[in-house]
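Ops channel
N.P.: pipeline sanity check, posting one input/output pair.
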């Protein structure tokens, strides 16, 4: 049995959808399905009940899932456990920083770096939430700030900030306004930045907007947050982003773009600090304990 078979099994078990699991694994669904069949043949057990519309775990699959996760966690822990065994007295560790982190959170990161400087050299590493979470899971990053929700059972989460979100709209159409309602935006397409750069929360927000009557969409690819601002500036659409003027996300705004609070809707983006549970009592004990103290009281904006 190969580790890859267990990785494939866990991905399908978590998604209960072969297509979604294949996307997560960056492979096609057909070879993934064949690998699962190979594993079932090797184990002599059917792991999934498959139908046209549903995939469910069998009793054998349910029993295998925690075993497979444990094996993968043990293998994933090898790099940082080896690093711990050969570490120098003062270690260089990395903390992930997603785009648009509020300056108040950055102050706390600086405070953490100062608190632990005798034991750790804390450096920042940029990336998307998905990539940073994966980096912590694999032991490449010690900690990361991440846009919630994050559903990785291997990681512990500490909520550190809640940011209120507002409507990013063309300034000309909404000049002089102090707020806007969703009802006023139903004729505007909602423009979402490329999914590879936005947090998972915005997928939930997209569905929520649809349920509340905002049906039109513009989906951008191969561009950044600046591309979203270009579309809005032309008067063609609206989006949703941080309301606080101090947020670095306001740096992407063009002249004909403003951010207004909603009068009938209150979306918010939560940020958490994440680390591997199994490192709390190991090589990161001092760092995690200091982080828990410094980030103990969640911020709001």
């Amino acid at each position: 049995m190969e580790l890859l078979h267990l990785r494939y099994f866990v991905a399908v078990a978590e998604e209960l959808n072969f297509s979604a699991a294949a996307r997560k694994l960056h492979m096609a669904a057909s070879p993934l399905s064949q690998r699962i069949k190979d594993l079932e043949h090797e184990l002599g057990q059917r792991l999934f009940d498959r139908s046209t519309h549903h995939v469910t775990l069998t009793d054998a699959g349910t029993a295998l899932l925690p075993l497979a996760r444990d094996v993968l966690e043990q293998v994933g822990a090898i790099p940082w456990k080896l690093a711990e065994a050969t570490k120098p007295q003062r270690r260089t560790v990395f903390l992930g920083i997603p785009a648009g982190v509020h300056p108040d959170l950055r102050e706390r990161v600086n405070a953490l770096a100062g608190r632990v400087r005798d034991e750790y050299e804390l450096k920042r590493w940029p990336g998307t939430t998905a990539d940073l979470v994966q980096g912590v899971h694999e032991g490449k990053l010690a900690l990361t700030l991440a846009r919630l929700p994050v559903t990785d059972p291997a990681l512990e989460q500490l909520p550190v900030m809640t940011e209120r979100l507002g409507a990013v709209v063309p300034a000309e159409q909404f000049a002089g306004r102090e707020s806007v309602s969703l009802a006023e935006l139903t004729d505007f397409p909602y423009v979402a930045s490329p999914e590879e750069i936005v947090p998972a929360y915005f997928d939930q927000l997209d569905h929520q907007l649809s349920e509340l009557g905002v049906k039109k969409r513009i989906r951008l690819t191969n561009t950044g947050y600046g591309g979203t601002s270009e579309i809005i500036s032309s008067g063609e659409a609206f989006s949703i982003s941080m309301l606080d003027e101090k947020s670095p996300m306001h740096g992407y705004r063009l002249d004909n773009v403003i951010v207004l609070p909603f009068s009938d809707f209150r979306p918010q983006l939560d940020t958490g600090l994440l680390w591997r549970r199994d490192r709390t009592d190991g090589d990161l004990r001092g760092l995690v304990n200091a982080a828990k103290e410094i980030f103990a009281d969640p911020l709001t904006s």
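N.P.: looks fine end to end. Residues 184 and 269 are 22 Å apart (CA to CA).
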